[in-house]
Amino acid sequence: MALKRYKPTTPGRRHASVVTAGEGVTTPERSLVSELKHKSGRNNTGRITVRHQGGGAKRQYRTIDFIKPIEDTPARVLGIQYDPNRTAFIALLSYPNGKKAYTLAVKGLSVGDIIETSRTKTLDVKPGNRMRLRNIPAGMEVSNIELFPGKGSKVVRSAGSSAVVLSIEKDVVQIKMPSGEVRRFSADALATIGQVSNSEKSNMRLGKAGRTRLLGIRPRVRGKAMNPVDHPHGGGEGSSPIGMKHPKTPWGKPALGVATRSPHKASDSLIIRRRKTKKKR
Q1: Element (H, E) at 43
Q2: 3-201 CATH, one of 2.40.70.10, 2.40.160.20, 2.40.50.140, 1.10.3470.10
Q3: Pairing with 26, which of 12, 233, 247, 255 sits 20 to 30 Å away (CA)?
């Protein structure tokens, strides 16, 4: 699994690259695949709430064991597979009783490895094992972390991301997130040892507009290219500036350097140091 650059046989291939995925069993497990319906950025009333979404290649959802992984049973890695619904690769696991499951693959995990998940005992500190944060030594890279014990993994799941365990104090563990934020977690929350796979994802170049459309991303139009009735940046002759000090959304709200986090959020008490944000102009 490495970054592959195409030969410049066409203008679209000249700067294109792809991360090669696939090791061991590469075909999706039929029992873990379900239909995934495209919503094209629309809510339940049919109105567009997220712009620039639509089209794209058909996808099937792979069921990942985020919420209830099989515990205290060793599993063998049958294959590392591409998942069209996320940036990271996924690992197909096989258990002694014949059951199969998908989990997020971490860097260094390969076909034939044995991994295990446990909330009750301390496991070997090796890539792929999942255990409580209280059993993971300080300074270790972790990923696929639960915000609350038993509620399922919610954070540090994208390609190449990892968090660092800073300290363990009784029932609280301090973790430095990929954004630089330092946050408190319950010591009983599960986490996976290692960095999420596909760290080369950020270096991949699509090369042409068609690959973007296959991902379900529709074209974006600059606000300054619109008319004044359509966007606050619209109007003018030729390549006119936006005509105001700060950029705005199509609905007139500030769009750069503005805090979007809700004030008085319940998790504020868990944050020790906030992530770095852009300074207001």
Answers
A1: none
A2: 2.40.50.140
A3: 12
Q: What is the 3-state secondary structure (H, E, C) of the chain?
A: CCEEECCCCCCCCCCCEEECCCEECCCCCHHHEEECCCCCCECCCCCECCCCECCCCCCEEECECCCCCCCCCCEEEEEEECCCCCCCCEEEEECCCCCEEEEECECCCCCCCEECEECCCCCCCCCCCEEEHHHCCCCCEEECEECCCCCCEEECCCCCCCEEEEEEECCEEEEECCCCCEEEEECCCEEEECCECCHHHHHCCCCCHHHHHHCCECCCCCHHHCCCCCCCCCCCCCCCCCCCCCCECCCCCECCCCCCCCCCCHHHHHEEECCCCCCCC
Spell out the domain ranges in the chain. Answer: 3-201, 221-281
CATH 4.10.950.10 given to domain 221-281: yes
DSSP secondary structure letter of residue 239:
S
Given a contact cutoff of 8 angstroms between Cβ atoms, the answer to whether 69 and 103 are in contact is yes
DSSP-derived letter for residue 225 is: G
Q: pLDDT tens digit string along 218-244?
A: 999 999 999 999 999 999 998 899 999
